[in-house]
Structures are given as C-alpha cells and as structure tokens.
Amino acid sequence: MANGSYGYQGGEAGRKAAALEVSAVEAGIMNGGGEGDEWRDDDGRAPRRTGTVWTASAHIITAVIGSGVLSLAWAIAQLGWVAGPAVMLLFAFVIYYTSTLLAECYRSGDASTGKRNYTYMDAVRSNLGGTKVRLCGVIQYANLFGVAIGYTIAASISMLAIKRADCFHQKGHKNACRSSSNPYMILFGVVEIVFSQIPDFDQIWWLSIVAAIMSFTYSTIGLSLGVAQTVANGGFQGSLTGISVGVDVTSMQKVWRSLQAFGDIAFAYSYSIILIEIQDTIKAPPPSEAKVMKKATMVSVATTTVFYMLCGCMGYAAFGDKSPDNLLTGFGFYEPFWLLDIANAAIVIHLIGAYQVFCQPIFAFVEKWAAATWPESGFISGELRVGPFALSVFRLTWRTAFVCLTTVVSMLLPFFGNVVGLLGAVSFWPLTVYFPVEMYIVQRGVRRGSARWLCLKILSAACLVVSVAAAAGSIADVIDALKVYRPFSS
C-alpha cells in the first residue's frame, strides 16, 4: 500500500496527516526505486505501480476461490437443485455489478487523471464523508480480522485432515482418529508471522499467483472426486428442494440452515473489501485503472463461478443430504488418501497467501497511522531490507502480535462452517453493495428519483434483506455450536 488514510481523522488533523504522508513519500520512505521521475507514478509513488489485469485477477482469485468453495456443496444441499445454483448465479451477478461500480470510485473526477483513493476508506471519504467513513472503517477492518480467523481455522482443519486421512488409511474408517487442531493453528500462525514481514500489497503478487494456482488445484481435485463418487453412486443424489425435514433436521433447523447457506455463498464471493487496495497496484493509465479492474473482475468472477457451480453441484450430486460443510475435510471422501493429502496441502498453501491478501490492508492502516502519530520515531520508521522482506522493530512487533491474536481467537472458536456463514452475511451488504452503490450515485451524479437511482436503491434494499436473513441463520447455527463447545478443543 503506498498512500492512504491514517485513520478516522477529519478537519485539520486529517489535513496534517495527509501532509505528513506526502512528505514521507517525497522523503523516500517508500523505498525500492531511484530518484528520477521515471521511477515515480503521477502521485510521487516510487517505485511505479506495475500491476496488470493478470496480477489483479490473481489477487482476486486468491481472495475469492478460498476455503469458501469447500462449503458450497453443503450450501446447495440446504437449498436444493433449483434454488442452490440460482442463488449462486444471482450472487455472482450482484458481486460483479457492484464491483464495477466500486472500481469507478478509485479516482475522484476523471477516470485517468483524477485524485487517487488508495483504500476503501479513502474512496468513502472522498465521496460520502462524515460518519460513514468511520462506519466503513469499523466494518471493513473488523471483517478483515474475522477473515484472518476463518482462514486460520480452515488451514488447521486441512492440516488435521491430512493426518486423519493417513490414519483412516492405516487403521480403517471406523477408527475415530481423533486429534487436536490447536498445534496446527500455532504452526500456521508461525508461518504467517514470517510472511507478514513482506512490507505491502505490491510485493505479495508472487504469493497471490502461487495461491491462485493452489486454489485451482484443490478445487479440481474436489470436483474430480465428486464426479467419481457420482458415477459410483450410479446417478445424482439430492432433491429439488434440498435437505428433507425429518428425524435429523427439524423444520426450524431447515429454515436457519437455508439462511446460513446464503451467508456461505456470500462469503465464497467476498472480495469487495479489498478491491480498491488491489486496484491501487495497477500501473498508471492508459488504459485507466477502472477499465483494467473491470476486466480483471469479469475474468475472475466468471472463472470462479464456473468452478463454484461445478464443485458445489458435483459435491451435492455425490453426497446429497449428507454433504459435509467442508468437502475435502468432512470425510465424505476417504480414498485415495494421497490425493486428499495433496488437496489439503494445496488448501494450506493457498490460505497462507489468502491470509496475507486480506491482512495487508490492516497492516498498512496501522503503520500509516503510527507514522503520522510519531513521525520522528526511529522505532517506527527504521527499516532493514533482506530480500523481499523489509524488517523493522515496529513491523515485527505489531504484526507478530496481530497474528498471535488471530491464532488464539481461532483456537477459541474452531468451527469452520459457522464462522464462514456469519462473516459472509455480516460483510455482504455494507461493503459489497451499500457503499459501492452510494459512492457511485455521488460520483456519477445520478439524479434522485431517476430510473437508475430507483434500480440501485432497490438492489441495495433487497441485498440488505438477504444479508440480515443470512446473519440470523448463521447466528442461530453458532448458538447451537456453542451449546456443546469447550474452549481450546477440537
């Protein structure tokens, strides 16, 4: 992250913070480039942004095709063959459309020469201002923190699944093969402490590409196993209306789980919270960053939707009402165990990169605020570069503390499906729909009461209803899980 807001500052304090930031850039704190203009972007940033439609697509795919894909078979099982795929396509369309609106807000004014908004909060500040900036910041960073927790849980479950798959292979499927996920969460946290020392979003492009490749790897394996199981079953499982009310599921549970399925699907498509930050890596026009980002969004959403439809539908076809909430760790599949090991290893590698994609905006926010608050502090500004890492005492201390905190909270809440649904439900409307719609209306001067204004408002209101319903279903499921939950246990 190059420049951006330092926090919830306004008025004279905000202007002073902005002046400090410009001075920091001019003083060369950004590092990594020469002194000539050829090394700097139009805003003075050095080195120049070098992102393309492909690197932006890699960031998006890393963020989108995450662990959420593994819960889609369960989500479709709750909704059935009719509503399940229809809801998935509907979410894909809404995410794509609102993402194009948000991409227009990267620059204020002209799409090629207007003032850059470096972060989501900057875009809200430029277009909406007031208390909405604070509201956006609270929701965005709380959600990013929640995603870090969700990914730590998911990674540990996949590491544990490797051990259990090997145990089932050796001792048989009837063996409990119980083990704690806590050591794996700690191991994941240690790895993230190391990767968290990469300074900013620009420098993790290679990690995003590796993570994107891994996401395609485990998604393809899940799809292949689903096809094989469906063939072995002699046909598709499931029904038009989803899981049946009966001995195992009450009518109320059916309602809550159907609503949670909406949250799971929303989480699987969630990346709007870091869209502006991804767009800020794209090289300067021509073409404009908005055009490049729209193309990257189209490529990414189309690609992920195809994968989601295939993985979710084939998982449901393979297991029907018994679809697990995590296709590759719920042990609907037992063999070939080595292929499950490869898939779960790919999930872990992917989540290492995805964790960084979602946490870098938090890191940048805190570090810019600290630099503005204590501009003379050597503890904050001192830096030693070693390869791709830029080491400083402050970065090492605070980022390590952040990773440790997410790890401890993950150990306290080790239920994957419930967390996924709640995160998706809570963040979907405000960050994916409301703010992009409101900013676009202001940015483009959409006349109040016009046909476009009415359509945008109706879209926002409808998505609010969906988001509230999905949150209610997820909260009900979390409450059920807490009834039998013991802290620091698996």
Fold blueprint:
Layout: H1 11-26, H2 53-64, H3 72-103, E1 107-108, E2 115-116, H4 120-127, H5 131-171, H6 182-195, H7 205-233, H8 251-268, H9 275-279, H10 289-319, H11 337-373, H12 378-381, E3 384-386, E4 389-391, H13 393-412, H14 416-444, H15 451-483
Antiparallel strand pairs: 1-2, 3-4
Structure description:
By secondary structure, the protein is mostly helical. It has a single domain (about 50-485), classed as Amino acid/polyamine transporter I. The chain has helices at about 10-25, 55-65, 70-105, 120-125, 130-170, 180-195, 205-235, 250-270, 275-280, 290-320, 335-375, 380, 395-410, 415-445, 450-485; strands at about 105-110, 115, 385, 390. The strands form 2 sheets. It has a two-stranded antiparallel sheet with strand order 1-2. A hairpin with a 6-residue loop joins β1 (about 105-110) and β2. α2 (about 55-65) runs parallel beside α10 (about 290-320) and α8 (about 250-270) crosses α14 (about 415-445). The longest helix has about 40 residues, at about 130-170.
